[in-house]
Each structure stands twice: as C-alpha cells, then as structure tokens.
Amino acid sequence: MNELLNSAAASLRKAAINEGAKDYILHNEVLFKTLKKAANRYIGGEDLKETITKVLLQNKEGYRCGIEFMGENTLTTVEATHATNEFLRVCTSIKVDGLNAALSLDLSHIGLSISETFCMENLQVICQAAAEQNIEVTISAEGADKTDAVLKTYLQASKIFTNLSITLQAYLHRTQDDFQEVIKRTGRVRLVKGAFETPTKLSIPRGAALNERYLDYLDKLFSIGQKCAIATHDLYIQQQAERLIILHQANKQQYEFESLYGIQSDQLAALKQQGHPVKMYFVYGHQWYLYLCNRIAEYPLNLFTALNDIVNG
C-alpha cells in the first residue's frame, strides 16, 4: 500500500510541473471550473479580495496569516512586474484592512528566471513597502535548480532589510552549509521538510532520518535564539518541537507553528489552544494547478477528498 501511495505521490508531482497539462487546464473553461472545486479547499481564492475575507476570519480566531500570490518561473519582465505590483497591493491591503499577516513570495515569480539583478530590484521595492508597514516578507522555497540564486539573493537583500525571512528545506544535503550562512542574518528561518522532486544524490527521502535532521536544525535555531517558523503538518515533529521549546525556554516572539490553509487545521488549532503562536498560510490566484497537485501528493488519499469536492462542490 505504501509503495502504491508513494508512486501516486511521485506521479502527481510530475503532473504538477507539466507545463503542457497546466496550460491546457488553465485554458479549458470546463476543466478549470471542475478542478477549481477541489482547489478551493486549499487556496484563499482567485483574487486578493476573496482571500482577505478568509484571512480576517482566521485573524479573529487568533491566527496570524501568511499571504502569497501564486506563481513562479515568469519569463517576461511584464509578468514579473505585474506580480511585483500585486505583492505591493497585498502590502497595502494588510495595512488598510488591519490584517495580522505577513507576505510570502517565490523569487522566480518576480523575475529570478529572467535576471538576478531585475529580481533584486523588484524584491527591494516589495521589502521597502513592507518595511514601512512593519510587514514581514518571507522568501519561499523553490526547486533545487534555483537554490543557489535564491540564497544568494536573500543573503544580499537581508543586509538591507531586517523584515526579510528565508525558507530552508531540511531534505537537501546542501542545507547543512546554507544553514551556517543564513544564521549570520537576523531574519526568521522558515523550516520545511521539502516537497520538490530532486535526484537522490541531492536529498534524503521522507522518514525518520529526515525528521531527525529537521529537529536538529530546529534545536540549533532555538539554541542561538534565531527567529523561526516550524512549517510542518507532521504531528511527531510538532510534538518534538514543543519539547525543544520547553528545553530552550523559547519565548513566543522567537517562533511560530505554521500550517497551510486546509491541511490538518485541527493540529494547528490544538497548538493555538495550548498557547503557542500559530500562522495559517494562504495562497491565491489563478495558478493553482501546481499547488493542488502538490497538496494531494503529500497525502495521495486526499484524491478521494478532491473527487468529493468536485462532485458536491
């Protein structure tokens, strides 16, 4: 059974990065509307206005939120500039609507695949606008082929902006070295297991070894007092993180537990009930195909949930 589920997960991740399939779905009105019913469980909405409504509801329940306009690998300056302007709209909305929220983004969405210089210019504009409103900006993880450029951009920009945070993927072998560079900065470290398909030589598979590596990074972050986000739905890691919090007597300004909207929300609610700072991560936009595939791939039995959403949505 596990072998079948792992095979299904691998297939879904391959489907997620199939540009032909994505374009076909996004331009086929019937198929788009059908699959969108399944995506609604996991996304804030197709536009910022719809997402703000959901964020406000979660804020009232005591959750801080993260907001990301979905998209990556933009190949034209027009697309990257449009994305940059949309992130600026998010900053304005956080202020105007009084949201308890942070901003997240993929660097390839704002031009990294076009030019590192162009991307840096766009990132600086966003970080400056966010800093003026005391908003945190988190750089999301991307595929292993982009990790060098992502880390380079973060290390440069974080010299200027203290409101900038970075995501590290525990499953990558290289993270052991990247970690040492990142902790020289004051920005929050958002720690994830890692969800992108990589050659075996670049990463370790999910399992006990990865869990222990994740917890080792977390232990180091607590020991040096670095701000961190415990971004996982793994109950075991959440429980062990609580143990580390007690062990290091970490204050609530140093850490937060983070979960994606629509994924095991009951676990995040339990952590909130226990008094831990929690954050719910929202994405929005039309580019939800890859996101939906990855959410189902994390637990392939969610495919049956998706089918139910399509039929009854």
Indicate the radius of gyration in whole angstroms.
Answer: 19 Å
Q: Which consecutive residue ranges, at least 5 long each, have pLDDT under 50?
A: none
The order of strands across the largest sheet is: 1-2-3-4-5-6-7-8
Taken from the alpha-carbon principal axes, the silhouette is: globular
Molecular structure report:
By secondary structure, this protein is of the alpha/beta class. It folds into two domains: 1-42 and 288-313, no CATH class; 48-285, TIM Barrel. The protein is 52% helix and 13% strand. It is built from 13 helices and eight strands. The protein has helices at residues 2-16, 19-26, 29-39, 48-60, 77-96, 116-132, 147-157, 175-182, 208-224, 235-248, 265-273, 289-298, 302-312; strands spanning 64-69, 101-105, 137-139, 164-169, 189-192, 228-231, 255-260, 278-284. It has an eight-stranded parallel beta barrel, surrounded by seven helices. Strand 5 (189-192), helix 9 (208-224) and strand 6 form a beta-alpha-beta unit. Helix 1 (2-16) runs antiparallel to helix 12 (289-298). It is globular, with a radius of gyration of 19 Å. It starts with a helix and ends with a helix. The model has no long low-confidence stretch (mean pLDDT 87).
Strand and helix layout:
Layout: H1 2-16, H2 19-26, H3 29-39, H4 48-60, E1 64-69, H5 77-96, E2 101-105, H6 116-132, E3 137-139, H7 147-157, E4 164-169, H8 175-182, E5 189-192, H9 208-224, E6 228-231, H10 235-248, E7 255-260, H11 265-273, E8 278-284, H12 289-298, H13 302-312
Parallel strand pairs: 1-2, 1-8, 2-3, 3-4, 4-5, 5-6, 6-7, 7-8
